[in-house]
């Protein structure tokens, strides 16, 4: 059972870090694609490959998390995962990424804000999988909001500077 738990933890961590790095790759590709003011066919194909990487990361992350929940139920863990703050932070971030991706695809949220919020959520998920986040739910939400604002400002500046160098 220990081997299964370690494997599921590895898959969860791999999914989170795959998503985080793919999100960074997507930001860089988008900035490069928008240098000339439009996204051509080859750039769109490149962005589609990145989207598949993000889907793979989220699928692996959620399946491994579901597996860990089942294992904790079978082994009758003393503290069920659903009673921990880290579980609810994890679920909130995963649902937030899915909702932001949907909102971005339907243009319900600006690209700058949506991509910054999703990128921040991916990185917080990655840090959560290695146990590097605050314990309380409120602290995690506050950290998410502050980091999203900082990343939003940084990405706006980078996109502005990249657009001026054409």
Question: Care to give the gist of this entry?
Answer:
The protein has 166 residues and is mainly alpha-helical.
Mean pLDDT: 87
Q: Main beta sheet, described?
A: none
Distance between the termini: 56 Å
Helix content: over 70%
One letter per element, helices H and strands E, the order comes to HHHHH
Query: How many strands in all?
Result: 0
SS summary, helix count:
5
Structural classification: mainly alpha
Low-confidence stretches: none
Shape designation: elongated
Oligomer state of the chains in this structure: single chain
Q: Supply Rg.
A: 17 Å
In total, the number of domains comes to: 1
% residues in beta strands: under 5%
Secondary structure: elements and pairs:
Elements: H1 2-33, H2 41-74, H3 85-105, H4 111-129, H5 137-164
Helix pairs in contact: 1-2, 1-4, 3-4, 4-5
How does this model look, in words?
- This protein is mostly helical and 166 residues long.
- It is built from five helices and no strands.
- It has helices at residues 2-33, 41-74, 85-105, 111-129, 137-164.
- The protein starts with a helix and ends with a helix.
- The model has no long low-confidence stretch (mean pLDDT 87).
